[in-house]
């Protein structure tokens, strides 16, 4: 410990020395403390001449040294009679001071000598046992005083260290908070680091620069003295440049020392001489073994920075690198996000165009084939019925594949929207069963429907539930020969809510655990032979599960090889009614008589001849009179002159597109009350919303399903009559 003792401690030790000298009848008493390899005089009292040296070596050649080293009392009756080789240094002091009897008692605490108390007499008169015991007591008092001082000093130092560490941790945490709150802006981080470095490193100036195209550019400065704001060259002739090039911390104690001026010639000639600072510390900002900037702290006086301050500045440098990297990554992510958004827009546009280009001819193929099939059935041309039915089945299969790809794309892009409504579950299950029954019978299968009592209604997207259940039923029929497909539906109370379970069980080929594990992956089937033997793209189940999960439910499967499979759709009932009614599905089109349509005129605005032929034929068969306009301008003119009961508006038209034609039609007083149903082959998200915003009363996608279109027409006409 240091022997620069506080004044109050010195007074206590002097009082101990005074009392020891008086009570033990000694001419003087001196107290020394251990300091490294020396013993240092700190307090005393007495009449014996005392040598001027305040520090003596800790050696056995001195009475005090031997007492400290041996941690034992040393009592010399006559120093003049002691052989010189026994106490060589002590004999020298004896000749100078004339002392004869000496008593040295070590100050021992916890078996460690802290110092010594020395009593001397100028005549030969040994100390008696009482005196020795008394001095031991005084030595204990002195040892306690010195030990308490040591403990107090250590505690003070420890508290100072803890306070400093806490302050550093607080500042570090604050800088990290600034980093997290400024992911796109690095300047607040630099400013926070500059302020903290100036305060905790006790610096008069802080400068932060970044490497930019081979130069050091100023990004932050704190201090009263101005700093060069222009970019500076990176060269070994400056401290900052060398710290950057060598990627190491450089600490200059005094910039005006000759060797510093010689080592940094550019700094010496341009900066150091006449500079308002003397001590300089530069820490590089290093990322992936490359210096990207530096932090410099300066002091106006010659006062080197401590090791702790150097470590702290290096910590600040590391935080600055983290902040720079965060901003870089944030900007990269933002740019990647912009690029992905552009790519998604291009993808969406491509899918919309693909949808239009594929759906338009499919619409014509399906609907023309249906017209021909109906005519062949009426005229008894049985040889044409089967080929036409095959064309229709193949076309609808292709349409289903296109819809699957579009659905998956919309789900992945987060653009799939659900339209929940309340509908009865039993009619939907029975409708799906009717749809698959014909194919099931061709495979020699029997379809059984079991809808339990109390099934009631569910609130969900009816179209997507129908699509998912139809997919499960179609798969069951496809993979089963001469077997049974059982469709069940029931309502269960689970997890504080009602759930609707719809299951499709078959007695078909079944699957192994390995096959079921990858069953719901996109473009995946149980194995390659499945695609060869049964066809399919492997999208149906993946999309169906996605739909169910979007509605808060799921699809699960239980299967065993050659023992069939059971797929179960589990959906929350939502606000659907819980009753025993089997009800009617919202999907059923209203039953309107042919006579009620006679005389009703529909204006069909379309430029595709195939679509015109199909829609005009089907609507004419349904009892409507159909007028045709080839573009938007003609449509507006005919709507104004003919006053039709309803307009079917294709949105992709030459001259004037359907969007603008609808807006103008709805803004014209003479045509604003005419209902408009938009028709389009584009099936992407937002098309319906755009159509409604343009003024359309309803929206339908191609290929046109005549039953669905008739339902929309009847609903629009009924709404107009009200």
Summarize this structure as a short list of keywords or feature phrases.
single chain; 722 residues; alpha+beta; 6-stranded antiparallel sheet; 48% helix; 22% strand
Give the overall average pLDDT: 84
In order across it, which strands form the biggest sheet?
3-2-1-6-5-4
> Low-confidence segments, ≥5 residues, pLDDT <50?
531-535, 578-592
Number of helices: 20
Roughly how much helix do the residues carry, as a percent range?
Answer: 40-55%
Global Rg: 49 Å
End-to-end separation in angstroms reads 102 Å
Task: Please describe the biggest sheet, giving its number of strands, its sense, and whether it closes into a barrel.
Answer: 6 strands, antiparallel
Number of strands: 24
Could you walk me through the main structural features you see in this protein, from its secondary elements to its overall organization?
With 722 residues, the chain is α+β, with helices and mostly antiparallel strands. Helix content is 48%, strand content 22%. It contains 20 helices and 24 strands. A six-stranded antiparallel beta sheet has the order 3-2-1-6-5-4. Helix 4 runs antiparallel to helix 5 (187-200), helix 12 (462-478) runs antiparallel to helix 15 (540-550) and helix 17 runs parallel beside helix 18. The chain is elongated and about 155 Å long. Mean pLDDT is 84; it is low at 531-535 and 578-592.
């Amino acid at each position: 410990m240091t022997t620069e003792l506080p004044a109050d401690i010195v007074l206590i030790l002097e009082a101990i020395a005074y009392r020891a000298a008086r009570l033990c009848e000694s001419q003087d008493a001196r107290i020394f403390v251990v300091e490294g390899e020396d013993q240092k005089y700190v307090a005393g009292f007495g009449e014996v001449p005392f040598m001027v040296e305040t520090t003596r070596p800790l050696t056995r050649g001195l009475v005090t040294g031997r007492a400290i080293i041996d941690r034992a009392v040393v009592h010399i009756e006559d120093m003049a009679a002691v052989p010189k080789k026994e106490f060589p240094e002590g004999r020298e002091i004896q000749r100078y001071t004339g002392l004869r009897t000496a008593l040295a008692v070590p100050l021992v605490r916890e078996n460690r000598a802290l110092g010594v108390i020395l009593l001397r007499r100028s005549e030969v008169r040994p100390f008696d046992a009482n005196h020795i015991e008394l001095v031991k007591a005084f030595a204990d008092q002195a040892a306690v005083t010195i030990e308490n001082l040591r403990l107090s000093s250590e505690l003070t130092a420890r508290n100072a260290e803890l306070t400093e560490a806490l302050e550093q941790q607080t500042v570090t945490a604050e800088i990290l908070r600034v980093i997290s709150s400024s992911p796109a802006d690095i300047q607040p981080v630099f400013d926070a680091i500059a302020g903290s470095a100036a305060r905790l490193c006790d610096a008069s100036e802080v400068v932060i620069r970044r490497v930019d195209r081979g130069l050091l550019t100023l990004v932050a400065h704190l201090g009263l003295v101005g700093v060069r704001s222009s970019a500076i060259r990176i060269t070994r002739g400056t401290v900052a440049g060398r710290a950057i090039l060598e990627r190491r911390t450089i600490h200059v104690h005094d910039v005006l020392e000759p060797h510093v001026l010689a080592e940094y010639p550019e700094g010496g000639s341009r900066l150091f001489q006449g500079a308002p600072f003397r001590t300089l510390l530069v820490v590089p900002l290093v990322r992936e073994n490359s210096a990207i900037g530096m932090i410099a702290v300066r002091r106006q006086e010659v006062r080197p920075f401590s090791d702790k301050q150097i470590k702290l500045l290096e910590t600040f440098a590391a935080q600055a690198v983290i902040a720079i990297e965060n901003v870089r990554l944030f900007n990269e992510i933002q740019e990647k996000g912009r690029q992905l958004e552009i790519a998604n827009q291009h993808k969406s546009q491509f899918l919309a165009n693909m949808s239009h280009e594929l759906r338009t001819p499919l619409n014509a193929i399906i609907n023309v084939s249906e017209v021909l099939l109906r005519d062949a059935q009426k005229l008894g041309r049985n040889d044409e019925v089967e080929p036409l039915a095959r064309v229709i089945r193949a076309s609808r299969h292709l349409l289903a594949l296109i819809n699957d790809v579009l659905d998956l794309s919309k789900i992945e892009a987060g653009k799939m929207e659900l339209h929940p409504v309340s509908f009865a579950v039993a009619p939907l299950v029975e409708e799906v069963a009717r749809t698959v029954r014909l194919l099931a019978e061709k495979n020699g299968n029997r379809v059984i429907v079991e809808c339990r009592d109390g099934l009631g209604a569910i609130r969900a997207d009816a179209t997507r539930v129908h699509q998912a259940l139809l997919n499960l039923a179609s798969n069951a029929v496809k993979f089963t020969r001469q077997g049974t497909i059982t469709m069940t539906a029931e309502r269960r109370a689970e997890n504080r809510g009602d759930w609707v379970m719809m299951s499709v069980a078959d007695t078909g080929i079944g699957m192994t655990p390995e096959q079921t594990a990858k069953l719901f992956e996109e473009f995946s089937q149980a194995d390659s032979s499945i695609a060869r033997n049964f066809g399919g793209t492997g999208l149906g189940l993946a999309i169906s599960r996605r739909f169910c999960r979007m509605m808060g439910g799921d699809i699960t499967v239980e299967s065993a090889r050659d023992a069939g499979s059971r797929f179960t759709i589990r959906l929350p009932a939502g606000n659907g009614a819980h009753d025993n009614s089997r009800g009617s599905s919202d999907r059923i089109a209203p039953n309107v008589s042919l006579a009620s349509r006679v005389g009703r005129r529909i204006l069909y605005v379309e430029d595709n001849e195939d679509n015109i032929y199909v829609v005009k034929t089907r609507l004419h068969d349904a009892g409507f009179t159909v007028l045709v306009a080839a573009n938007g301008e003609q449509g507006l003119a005919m709507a104004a002159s003919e006053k039709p009961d309803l307009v079917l508006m294709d949105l992709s038209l030459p001259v004037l597109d359907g969007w603008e034609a609808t807006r103008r039609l709805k803004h014209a007083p003479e045509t604003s009350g005419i209902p408009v149903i938009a028709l389009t082959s584009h099936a992407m998200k937002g098309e319906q919303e755009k159509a409604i915003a343009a003024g359309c009363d309803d929206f339908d996608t191609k290929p046109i399903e005549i039953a669905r279109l008739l339902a929309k027409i009847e609903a629009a006409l009924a709404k107009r009559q009200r």
